[in-house]
Amino acid sequence: xxxxxxxxxxxxxxxxxxxxxxxxxxxLTGNSMLSHRLTRVLPHIIDSLLLxxxxxxxxxxxxxxxxxxxxxxxxxxxxxxxxxxxxxxxxGPTKPVRAGAFAAALSVYVWIVSVAFTKNPAGFxx
Length: 126
Description:
The N and C termini lie far apart (32 Å). The chain has four helices and no strands. By secondary structure, it is mainly α. Keywords: Membrane, Transmembrane, Transmembrane helix.
């Protein structure tokens, strides 16, 4: 069961990143697809599955935030990623602010994945 849930998690990680990258490109180019209903709903479904699978995996391997430093780092990174992503796609007052938040969110995303691979809270920065 662990490997099936991990597979779902990894697929959701890839889908979430691809969707964010696409929506970010649409934001930068002013594409009207950014406001399409499916574009607004599908990321929430994917990200909910991603979070549910992450929680399930954490319980299965008994690695929890504040008990496992790398899991704590991932949760902190997730919060930063969500805030930056919201700034990039919705709340940024200007396109340069949105573009900067988009680049920062992508960087945080890559760091979170590196933490997952290395099981080190510094990720690729170690």
